[in-house]
Amino acid sequence: MKRKASNNTNGDEQDLVDTLLNYKEANKPEFHHTTNQIKAVAMDIYSAGSESSATTIEWAMSELLRNSRVMEQSKASKGTVLSCSHLVQLQDLSNSCTSNIELGLAQLLYRFNWKLPNDTKLEALDMAENFGITERRRNNLLVTATTHIPFRKRDN
């Protein structure tokens, strides 16, 4: 693993990878990690952030599908804030809704109508959990999406 030249001219700011590489290059016996181990740490951190977001969105969609009244209220509340002609962005949401999870969920609710495939009854939606580091659904959420608000091409 080679370091890439940084735009940081004063050298004060370092990220986690810089810190790990500094330890590796110092050749201290108490810190003997290989480049592959450093890559694994970085990947674990990255996947922990994205895995938890994806899991949260999947559970939120599952709960919204089970409760169509709440789904419609959520879509309506987003619709009062958003015009039909643009992509949902963070500034479109209220101050309490500024996370990537809420932005992703807002996009899914705003642009699409959702239903279970093959006319599956909502009561039949499996809500079983797999316990582990993250609490994922035992079975993936399979849904059918139809366009509610069409996407517009961006003007250049």
Topology:
Layout lengths: L15 H11 L8 H32 L1 H14 L18 H12 E4 L13 E2 L5 E2 L6 E4 L9
Antiparallel strand pairs: 1-4, 2-3
Question: Which structural traits does this protein have?
Answer:
156 residues, single chain, 4 helices, mainly alpha, two-stranded antiparallel ribbon, two-stranded antiparallel sheet
Word description of this protein:
With 156 residues, the protein is mostly helical. The chain has a domain of 96 residues. Helix content is 44%, strand content 8%. The protein contains four helices and four strands, in the order ααααββββ. The strands form two sheets. A two-stranded antiparallel ribbon has the order 1-4. Strand 2 and strand 3 form a beta hairpin. Helix 2 crosses helix 4. The longest helix has 32 residues. It is elongated, with a radius of gyration of 22 Å. It starts with 15 loop residues before the first helix and ends in a 9-residue tail after the last strand. About 4% of the residues have low confidence.
Give the termini separation: 39 Å
Q: Which range best describes the helical content: under 10%, 10-25%, 25-40%, 40-55%, 55-70% or over 70%?
A: 40-55%
Per DSSP E runs of 2 or more residues, the count of β-strands stands at 4
Largest sheet: 2 strands, antiparallel
The portion of residues forming beta strands comes to 5-15%
N-to-C series of helices and strands: HHHHEEEE
- Oligomer designation: single chain
Give me a quick take on this structure:
With 156 residues, this protein is mainly alpha-helical. It has a domain at 52-147. The protein is built from 4 helices and 4 strands, in the order H-H-H-H-E-E-E-E.
